[in-house]
Amino acid sequence: MTKLSFSALSAFSxxxxxxLALAAGCADKKSPNGKPNIIVILADDLGYxxxxxxxxxxxxxxxxxxxxxxxxxxxxxxxxxxxxxxSRFSLLTGMYPWKNTRAKILPGDAPLIVDTAALTLPKxxxxxxxxxxxxxxxxxxxxxxNADWNAVIRPNPADVGYxxxxxxxxxxxxxxCVYVENGRVDGLDLSDPISVNYKENFEGEPTGxxxxxxxxxxxxxxxxxxxxxxxxxIGFMKGGKAALWTDETMADVFLSHAKxxxxxxxxxxxxxxxxLHQPHVPRVPNERFAGKSGMGPRGDAILEAxxxxxxxxxxLDELGLAENTLIIFSSDNGPVVDDGYKDQAVELLGxxxxxxxxxxxxxxxxxxxxxxxxxVRWPAEVKAGVSEAVVCQMDLTASCAALVGLPPxxxxxxxxxxxxxxxxxxxxxxxxxxxxxxxxxxxEGNWVLIPPSPGQAYSPLTGTDTGRSPDYQLxxxxxxxxxxxxxxxxxxxxxxxxxxxxxxxxVGNTR
Length: 511
Hints:
This protein has ten helices and 20 strands. By secondary structure, the protein is of the alpha/beta class. The strands form five sheets. It has a ten-stranded mixed β-sheet with strand order 6-5-4-3-11-1-12-13-2-14, sandwiched between helices.
């Protein structure tokens, strides 16, 4: 693959990045290949109400809407979990995250939590003759523990099925704040080696807690450790100065590598996982978007993500690939407003409702935590419209296997809902286990059961209804989308039946 290093990219304008991505003869239009190309675009902390085609009138997302205008918009699309790592684990493996004790929000130095011998979505695509890539946010761990960031880190995305990868190790608020290409830190000067520690700081290194005068964005809670690009993060690191990312150019960097992968593989079927970093904290969008939403950095970051997706759609059009490219757009979990930085997201929210009509958000057992934007576009096969079928990101493994003619997957929680994804059936899955922050809920048909769980019903840090309660909660989503009326007391038989079903399905639950 043609290398576009971070150190080179950061010096270019957005126009220059776009020009670079058209290298290697990619300006020539090509006929679609026989199998559909597949691109999974996963936003980070984007809520059901953050997208205008899902009802937002306070922020406009014309390019997310563009996918929906020519595709199928699902009103009941889910992630498996209301936090990042568990959700992404399910998308990659087709398994419930609570079956893996390590599938929890990971620090930036965590080892890879996916068994390299296990079946994964990209491995299936490789079996079907696809070339595979992961670009953007990862957050599934790298290495086997105590990774050496100054050498090739193994295992890495190649060991779970991605032939090419250009990623951030964890999240944009965690160290190490570098890009990793095929297991190696991009742009690293070995004379300035990287060290990472999540327990104690390195001597002489400033922190957000002790050196607030060095910050351009201040933490509201946590996030007061090592300072990179004027923003303090979670965890401590030193060294690697030449390889450190600049938050303001992150969208351009990831977009350029996604486009270059498409360029290099335009004549063969490809599978691309494109993990957007927006609107996860810290929200530091490019100056092209700063101040444009009227809602502060969170709103501006959503506009930037929408632009990023638009650029990718335009590129597919330029190459003549759009007609036969299946795009699946979604978010890893529900929204959060204050997630650790003083970025005026709360003060400037106004009438905007990030979760739309849903209750809860990131970390929550209510639907706002896991019911997310979920749109499928494949112009050659999928008619534009709206579907009420219940589908889950975990189901992409079995569904994509069916799409490319592979045998049914075995011993997975993933279900083949391909007919629903293509708009050929109004029926998706009937039952789904949902994970909040370490506790489970159960959806069956239009009913959701939330078992008792300890903890606060409302998080004062994030402003989220967590769904935690000492009592059983039962909601009929068809009649009560906002989950305001607990019917557990009036439906005891249903509570007992759903309780038994959840216990049966969650055998081995470690949460």
